[in-house]
Design goal:
about 80 residues, mainly alpha, Cyclin A, domain 1, about 0% strand, GTPase-activating protein
Length: about 80
C-alpha cells in the first residue's frame, strides 16, 4: 500500500482522499444503517484483519478509478440547478 502512496504525486493530500472514498463505498450499505456513534466506532476499527494482499489491491484499484474519474473536476461538486 505504501508503495502506491509513494508512487503517486501528492499522495497524502490527493490520492488518500480517493482511498478513503473507496473504503466508504465498500461499506456504504452497512454505514447507511448505523447512527453517528456506530459509524465512528466502525471506522475506528475497520474489519480488515482478514484482508489479503488481493483485497488491498482491489481497494487501491477502486481508489485509482475514483481518482481518474473525479480528479481536478469541480463539476461533480456543483449543485443541480
Amino acid at each position: 500500500m505504501w508503495d502506491t502512496y509513494l508512487a503517486e504525486d501528492r499522495a497524502f493530500s490527493d490520492f488518500h482522499l480517493y482511498v478513503c472514498a473507496a473504503f466508504l463505498v465498500k461499506w456504504s450499505d452497512q454505514l447507511l444503517k448505523m447512527d453517528f456513534q456506530e459509524i465512528m466506532m466502525f471506522l475506528q476499527a475497520l474489519p480488515t484483519k482478514q484482508w489479503s494482499e488481493k483485497d488491498i489491491e482491489l481497494l487501491l484499484s477502486e481508489a485509482f478509478i475514483w481518482q481518474s474519474l473525479f480528479r481536478g473536476s469541480a463539476a461533480h461538486l456543483k449543485g443541480q440547478g
